[in-house]
Amino acid sequence: MPTNKEAEKELPAVVDSVDWKRVAELMLTSRAMDDKEENELVPNKDVLYQFSARGHELGQILLGSQLSHKHDAASAYYRSRPLMLSLGLGLENAMAAPMAKSGGYSDGRDIGVVCNKPGLDGPTVLPMAGDVGSQYTPAIGWAQGIQYHRQTLEQEEYDRAISVVLGGEGSVATNGFWSALTIATTQDLPILFYIEDNGYGISVPGEFQTPGGNIAKNLYSFKNIRIFDGDGTDPVEAADLLNQSVNYVRDRKGPALIHLTMPRLNGHSYQDNQAYKSEELIEKEREADPLDNVKSFLVPEYFTEEDWSTVEVKAKQNIEEAADAALSRSEPDPEETTRYAFEEENEDGTADLQLIGGLATSGHTFPESSQTPNPGKQRINIVEAIRKTLDYELETNPKVMVFGEDVGAKGGVHAATMGLQTAHGESRVFDTSLSEEGIIGRSVGLAYSGLMPVAEIQFRKYADPATEQLNNCGTIRWRTANKFAAPIVVRMPGGFAKCGDPWHSLCNEVFFAHAVGWQLVMPSNAQDAVGLLRSAMRSNNPTIFFEHRNLLDAKYARRPYPGDKYIVPLGKANKLRDGKEVTIVTWGAMCEQCEKAAEQTDIDAEILDLRSIMPWDKKAVIESVQKTNRCLIVHEDTKTAGFGAEISAVLSKEAFKYLDAPIERLTMPDIPVPHNVNLMDAVLPNVEKITTKLNTLVSF
């Protein structure tokens, strides 16, 4: 303890509660890791991608010591290894991951400093990402999950849990940061934004990221958030501010942001020599080294010089031993690399479950289901089919949440959620801010927290701002070697309607077919909409549920409601018409056009509605072509690299000897959908064009 009584009185009370020995041990350990990598492992090419935490250790370790609730979570980034150490990351794993050795965060699949930590016995560290700013909105989802578990599900064990998101000053310029800030402050969520400001985003000064270079000063006038601002190299000030900010959020006073300045004592990564900094600035940063400040604070009041030296020597020794053990680890098994794009089964047929995320990890059970419809008498459109399915799943599963822009009081711009908020409450069916990044990122965090989010993106084209979150969501299971998954459903209308345009009429389903880890379904009628949506909401994988705008209220798509038990297995095509002369493979709005074309010719065409694009029913398509010996693929998406090309490639290889004619594709040309109706009709596949293609194929 300090011996100077006057100085002791001036120190904040929290200082005495900090385990300064552990802080020193972890700071010296982190510094020894950086030394080992920079001086040996990177030059020897044992580590190929290195990010130093030198200068960032103090605040992260103090923050980690505050995260003790079992439902706490941190959403961090690639310079957050000191935080991981403070939360119990083993030294061997910490050294092995940058070497891309087996085990660890990802089994060699992801960058070594892109960490995660399933919170099975304490706080969770959400899967980090290699892109900047994408950590913010999943943290918002976890925070809303805490709020939902505590308030709606009335689970007292979530009381005082918080979500923390870490980012550098460069990330405050990203869409993710501002989307998360908007959601946090409008929804009063239990989240702490922890911003580390080292003055540079690689080589770009902080003044280019936010006016004046200090995000805290710019946010003092922001409503519903408490701002803390201070020196991240001063042990007393940093400890006091972190204690205040964490407890402010724990006490349900609202979200908070803490901004701490600190030096980045190395380049952005090992290859960065910081030539853009002057020697004077580099020297000034060295003089602000938080490790030196901690030593000055602790020695001799808490530690003797000998004690400090002992801890320093021990840290270096531990890292040497951990590095040797990590280097001795085996390389990841190449035969395992393709595993975990989707949920898999164990040898005994049980699900090989992730540790964190989704309903399956809690042992959730669903009501009985059936692949046999139990239809009523009244035919309904796809909009009503979606609404009834959502209503039943909300009623029977308290962990389902439905949200998006205008889905609440308005009932959605397509009316698919009409009345659901009234029936199930504003905590379960709610509107969001106008940010697709926020909608999807929030969904991921909610799924991590064990909920089933069903998010609406109003039109397919509007999903583009969320591309980063969508891609990251799909790869979570693979990137973490099945430690985490985020099973979510994203409802997404698109395609032509009464007219077209480049913004609302986009299909581009092949984008999601190509996105790793995503399931993609496209119902052509109300019955399939029910079955596919219910399957998606009960799946342990993320799913895009594509709602074609021209079919939402189309007479063609109307069917009797098939009952609350009805499901359609994903990856199973529907045979719309038997035939022997030619196979037509199609999906979505083109099903109607293909059926009409077949009815207007004397050609005996077999029509398969894929219904599910990822996975798709290869078996059914191949068997049909083996029978008919000809194939026409019809889809609304553009031709070049459209999904029809994938089907054609598979048939060319696996059904080549059965083909009596070249495989034909009929698609949109490689242009957006025009607004003018005549122009739209001229470029879309239609009955006349399909009939012409059929005649050509049969007469070949």
CATH class of the largest domain: Alpha Beta
CATH architecture of the largest domain: 3-Layer(aba) Sandwich
Rg calc: 28 Å
How many structural domains are formed by the residues?
A: 3
**Molecular shape:** elongated
Please state roughly what percent of the residues sit in beta strands, choosing from under 5%, 5-15%, 15-25%, 25-35%, 35-45% or over 45%.
Answer: 5-15%
SS-derived structural category: alpha/beta
Ranges with pLDDT <50 over ≥5 residues? Answer: 1-8
Largest sheet: 7 strands, mixed
Helix tally equals 23
- At the third CATH level, what is the topology name of the largest domain? Rossmann fold
Helix content: 25-40%
**What is the count of β-strands?**
24
* Spatial strand arrangement across the major sheet: 13-12-14-15-17-16-22
Molecular structure report:
With 700 residues, this protein is α/β, with parallel strands linked by helices. It has three domains: 5-331, 3-Layer(aba) Sandwich (Rossmann fold), CATH 3.40.50.970; 360-560, Thiamin diphosphate (ThDP)-binding fold, Pyr/PP domains (Rossmann fold, 3-Layer(aba) Sandwich), CATH 3.40.50.970; 575-698, Rossmann fold, CATH 3.40.50.920. Helices cover 37% and strands 14% of the residues. Strands 13-12-14-15-17-16-22 form a seven-stranded mixed beta sheet, with helices on both faces. A six-stranded parallel beta sheet has the order 2-1-3-4-8-7, sandwiched between helices. Strands 19-21-20-23-24 form a five-stranded mixed beta sheet, sandwiched between helices. A hairpin with a 5-residue loop joins strand 9 (344-345) and strand 10 (351-352). Helix 6 (136-151) crosses helix 15 and helix 15 (436-448) runs parallel beside helix 16 (467-479). The radius of gyration is 28 Å and the shape is elongated. Mean pLDDT is 95; it is low at 1-8.
